[in-house]
C-alpha cells in the first residue's frame, strides 16, 4: 500500500511548532480520507493505524470576569 501513491506536501509555519503539528495532523487526516474515497479497501488498515480519527481536543473558551480560560487574577496577600 505504501508504494502505490506519491504524495508531496509542505506544512508552512513560523514559530509555534505546536501549530505545525496541528497542520501536519490535519494534512495526514485529509490524505487518509482521500485514500478511502479513492478505494474502500484502505479503510480498515488506515482505521487500525489511527489515521482516520480526528483529534477531539479543542481550545477551552475564555470565562467571563477572568483573564483567560483557567487563569485567575492575582490574589493579594494583605
Task: Give a brief outline of the structure.
This protein is mostly helical.
Description:
- With 78 residues, the chain is mostly helical.
- The chain has one domain: Ribosomal Protein S5, domain 2.
- Helices cover 37% and strands 0% of the residues.
- The N and C termini lie far apart (67 Å).
- 3% of the residues are buried.
Count of DSSP helices? 2
What is the CATH T-level topology?
Answer: Ribosomal Protein S5, domain 2
Instruction: Let me know the average pLDDT.
Output: 87
Helix content: 25-40%
User: Number of DSSP strands?
Assistant: 0
**Shape category:** elongated
Computed structural class = mainly alpha
> Major β-sheet, in short?
none
Uncertain stretches = none
Query: Over the alpha carbons, how many angstroms does the gyration radius reach?
Result: 20 Å
Q: Which labels suit this protein?
A:
mainly alpha; 78 residues; elongated; Ribosomal Protein S5, domain 2
Note the topology:
Elements: H1 17-38, H2 43-49
